[in-house]
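Subject: complex prediction, re-run

Hi both,

The earlier run crashed halfway through, so I resubmitted it with identical inputs.
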Amino acid sequence: MRIILMGPPGAGKGTQARRLSESTGMKHLSTGDLLRAEVTAGSELGLLAKGFMDRGEYVPDSHIISMIHKSIADPAGVLLDGFPRTVVQAESLDESLENAGLGIDKVVHFAVDTDELVNRLSSRAVCSDCQTPYNLVSDAPSKEGVCDKCGGLVIVREDDKPEAIKTRMCVYEEQTAPVLDYYRSRGEVSEIIATGTPDSVFEKLSQAIGSGV
Ligand code: AP5
Ligand code: MG
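This time it finished cleanly. Structure:
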């Protein structure tokens, strides 16, 4: 099964993809997480990506496509989180899946209003090792700066600072909203209102995906 989780920055894609991956065994592929790992490793791609990411802009399509290409046919099934984000990426995904004799089973759109997104992102911190997200107001790590899950360092992402949050929202509207239209025109999108507790969102997500997982 291949499921695409779509939604603006802070909609909860990563939170829910992690849970779904744990409960189903599907592979969680987050292009944001993969890029942050490249930045930490100081690779050529990481050095190139860092400036774009810190400003809240997208990393050029060609780099993203080659980074993700080899994983999309994983036999465990794949949860795509943060990809595709442009129409060029969506077309390239279609082509790769078609070549592998595969398709997309579901596209789920997480709808959350902008004020709530800005609140979530402004109070978020993440583990720099395992990427577990925290909310510094309502769900902080038990020991300040230390991940409850893996003991890694919990940090505030550079792109969760106010200027970058604004840019990310605009870039999403300009470049990723058309990807939703691309899938809607094929009737493949399930909409969920992704507010309420993470448990209740997981419930809605499971229903949207149906009995296939
Ligand atoms: P990426 O890491 O994908 O960032 P994003 O899309 O901006 O999404 P986020 O990770 O910020 O939000 P999320 O939806 O995962 O929410 P989360 O679960 O963390 O990408 C970062 C950058 O990498 C991009 O800007 C770009 O530069 C580059 N990049 C990545 N992919 C690319 C691509 N395909 N093409 C080009 N460039 C690319 O939750 C957010 C917060 O809310 C957390 O604190 C969480 O605890 C909390 N929360 C979650 N659910 C709830 C809930 N139900 N109620 C209350 N709080 C909640
Ligand atoms: Mg994320």
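The mean pLDDT is 95.

- K.
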